[in-house]
């Protein structure tokens, strides 16, 4: 749900911050006041391409931010986690900064993002319906999704898609194997040799590290023993042995403590030093007793290191990569061996195709049942919206199997009596398309998955009772605490039914035209509805009529 839209230096808006609520909201104002600026700004925040000329005159950049509540939008939450763009709360912040030279930057939750990422998110946040936009309902993929959502078989559609992907991968592998059987056979033989050679090394990374440590020790054994003996000599056997001098210091400080107890801490320190010195001597002596400088062991270690390096050079891999390489070689060998087994690639491919076909036929059956009900519901909604003899059909045309099933799905409409149903983008004009979109959404609303819907002048070309029906349908569409319907309208019949009403106005300030948008109270709404009813001159009669429409 859209919570806030902030706009800075965009077209004729200097600075604006609007808060939004759930339900049905109307935006009204004089023609040219800037009503569409709101949608244009939001569209840019949702990843739409910048066509230029959007930065306010004499300014360096336009800055647009949209804040959404995504607590109930699991699809968006999952997408953000997958792309490592999540925040600590359920608020999502999309931001777009557009410079006067046309360059722009995008941000998601304060992190730099691409326009494609904004666009992907936007498709799960807002659906915009206008006369001039090819919105989601014109896409065959969206039509298929609406039918599957309405029928409650989206999970079955996803299962069918995944089964097709599994089958297609196996099918490609089968074709590839049949084409390159000899190459694969040679590869398998080579893999077996390499794996046998690697396994004979009995290599582990921990052993390799220990081997290198032992080699370093044995290679410098004499030097090592010489250094340890020197340390022992200095600590204990030299004429000026450190241990003897420390004992002398200990005796002197112990005597001094009897005179001044403030030296007690120093006494404890020298005691500790003596203990540590004795422990150091014992440790060095133990090391000398255990050290083994067997030259034969050094030869064995060097031979093993050489064998490991030879294998690595032969196959162009580092010893540190041996274990991961073993896993990948083993997996590839298992795959190639499975191709040659009785239950090889061909058998697997047939089983995968069978599983896909079973799921696809179940999906087709479910779609057929849902399409009849959806067609009837949308036809009824159309006829309420001045399509008095209109007819809607969900056309299911059999096709070769694809990841999306066994049928081509397309929404068809006949907008008047005697007309043959045609694809909606061919059969409906701009205004009709907006109302048709409304009919489709109302008919399938129980399964609608986009929390915010914006309708730009869906009332074009209608009036009277039909306009009131449009308003009631929009109100019904927004009658949900987790859904928003924002409507730009010129009809008082529609605006009067809104729960929230925003006024768009235009002023002249400092030789510049500025647009302002604000939420109206009841008194302001009466004046605005009266203006929409009566034009420039607002009379007491039009005000009373406005109050009646608003039920104030």
From TrEMBL:
<dbReference type="Pfam" id="PF02463">
    <property type="entry name" value="SMC_N"/>
</dbReference>
<dbReference type="InterPro" id="IPR004604">
    <property type="entry name" value="DNA_recomb/repair_RecN"/>
</dbReference>
<protein>
    <recommendedName>
        <fullName>DNA repair protein RecN</fullName>
    </recommendedName>
</protein>
<keyword id="KW-0067">ATP-binding</keyword>
<keyword id="KW-0234">DNA repair</keyword>
<dbReference type="InterPro" id="IPR003395">
    <property type="entry name" value="RecF/RecN/SMC_N"/>
</dbReference>
<dbReference type="GO" id="GO:0043590">
    <property type="term" value="C:bacterial nucleoid"/>
</dbReference>
<feature type="domain" description="RecF/RecN/SMC N-terminal">
    <location>
        <begin position="14"/>
        <end position="510"/>
    </location>
</feature>
<feature type="coiled-coil region">
    <location>
        <begin position="174"/>
        <end position="201"/>
    </location>
</feature>
<keyword id="KW-0175">Coiled coil</keyword>
<dbReference type="GO" id="GO:0005524">
    <property type="term" value="F:ATP binding"/>
</dbReference>
<dbReference type="GO" id="GO:0009432">
    <property type="term" value="P:SOS response"/>
</dbReference>
<comment type="function">
    <text>May be involved in recombinational repair of damaged DNA.</text>
</comment>
<dbReference type="GO" id="GO:0006310">
    <property type="term" value="P:DNA recombination"/>
</dbReference>
<keyword id="KW-0227">DNA damage</keyword>
<dbReference type="GO" id="GO:0006281">
    <property type="term" value="P:DNA repair"/>
</dbReference>
<comment type="similarity">
    <text>Belongs to the RecN family.</text>
</comment>
<dbReference type="InterPro" id="IPR027417">
    <property type="entry name" value="P-loop_NTPase"/>
</dbReference>
<keyword id="KW-0547">Nucleotide-binding</keyword>
């Amino acid at each position: 749900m859209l919570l806030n839209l902030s706009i800075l230096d965009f077209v004729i808006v200097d600075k604006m911050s609007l808060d939004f609520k759930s339900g049905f909201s109307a935006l009204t104002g004089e023609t040219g006041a800037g009503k569409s600026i709101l949608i244009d700004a939001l569209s840019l925040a949702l990843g739409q391409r910048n066509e230029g000329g959007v930065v306010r005159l004499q300014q360096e950049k336009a800055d647009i931010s949209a804040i959404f509540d995504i607590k109930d939008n699991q699809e968006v939450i999952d997408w953000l986690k997958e792309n490592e763009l999540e925040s600590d709360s359920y608020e999502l912040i999309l931001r777009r900064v557009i410079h006067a030279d046309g360059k722009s930057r995008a941000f998601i939750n304060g992190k730099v993002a691409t326009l494609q990422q904004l666009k992907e998110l936007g498709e799960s946040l807002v659906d915009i319906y206008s006369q001039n936009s090819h919105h989601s309902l014109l896409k065959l993929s969206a039509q298929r999704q609406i039918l599957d959502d309405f029928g409650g078989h989206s999970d079955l559609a996803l299962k069918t898609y995944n089964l097709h992907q599994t089958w297609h991968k196996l099918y490609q592998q089968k074709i590839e194997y049949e084409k390159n059987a000899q190459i694969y056979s040679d590869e398998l033989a080579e893999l077996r040799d390499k794996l046998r050679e690697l396994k004979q090394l009995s290599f582990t990374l921990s052993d390799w590290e220990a081997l290198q440590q032992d080699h370093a020790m044995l290679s410098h054994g004499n030097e090592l023993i010489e250094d340890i003996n020197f340390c022992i000599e200095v600590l204990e056997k030299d004429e000026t042995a450190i241990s003897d001098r420390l004992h002398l210091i200990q005796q002197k400080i112990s005597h001094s403590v009897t005179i001044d107890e403030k030296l007690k801490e120093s006494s404890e320190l020298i005691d500790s030093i003596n203990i540590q010195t004795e422990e150091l001597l014992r440790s060095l002596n133990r090391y000398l007793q255990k050290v083994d400088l067997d030259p034969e062991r050094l030869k064995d270690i060097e031979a093993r290191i050489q064998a490991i390096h030879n294998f690595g050079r032969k196959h162009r891999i580092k010893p540190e990569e041996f274990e991961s390489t073993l896993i990948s070689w083993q997996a590839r060998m298992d795959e190639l061996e499975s191709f040659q087994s009785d239950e090889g690639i061909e058998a697997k491919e047939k089983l995968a195709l069978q599983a896909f076909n079973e799921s696809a036929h179940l999906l087709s059956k479910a779609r057929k049942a849902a399409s009849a009900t959806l067609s009837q519901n949308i036809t009824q909604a159309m006829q309420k919206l001045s399509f008095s003899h209109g007819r809607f059909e969900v056309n299911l045309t059999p096709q070769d199997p694809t990841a999306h099933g066994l049928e081509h799905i397309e929404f068809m409409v006949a907008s008047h009596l005697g007309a043959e149903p045609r694809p909606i983008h061919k059969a409906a004009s701009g205004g009709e398309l907006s109302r048709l979109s409304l009919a489709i959404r109302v008919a399938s609303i129980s399964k609608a998955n986009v929390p915010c819907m914006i309708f730009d002048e869906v009332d074009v070309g209608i009036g009277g009772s039909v306009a009131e029906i449009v308003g009631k349908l929009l109100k019904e569409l927004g009658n949900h605490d987790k859904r928003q319907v924002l409507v730009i309208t010129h009809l008082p019949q529609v605006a009067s039914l809104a729960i929230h009403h925003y006024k768009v106005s235009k002023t002249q300030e400092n030789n510049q035209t500025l647009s302002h948008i604000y939420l109206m109270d009841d008194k302001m709404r009466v004046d605005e509805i009266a203006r929409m009813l009566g034009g420039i001159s607002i009379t007491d009669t039009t005000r009373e009529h406005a109050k009646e429409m608003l039920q104030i």
